[in-house]
Write a structure and sequence with these properties.
The chain is mainly α. It has one domain. Helix content is 64%, strand content 0%. The chain is extended.
């Protein structure tokens, strides 16, 4: 699932997420099955799209650079 390890209120175990996802299928156009992710989605919906898109872009670029650095170290 996710390479992120450790305790986080927003990272469910694979089993928790699978159970939540199965309950969600077929009920909504957008499936945000895990309740904590629903909270995140709600909070994100309050932010203007331009600001959210800028944050996503910066996060993606940062992660890409981190991965390049990791690959370059080997």
């Amino acid at each position: 699932m996710s390479p992120v390890k450790g305790d986080s209120p927003f990272i469910p175990s694979p089993e928790e997420y699978a159970r939540a996802a199965l309950r969600c299928i077929g009920y909504e156009a957008r499936c945000v099955p895990y309740w904590r992710h629903s909270v995140q989605w709600f909070l994100a919906s309050l932010v203007p799209d331009a600001a959210l898109n800028q944050w996503r872009l910066q996060t993606g670029i940062r992660k890409r650079n981190e991965m390049k650095a990791l690959v370059g170290e080997k």
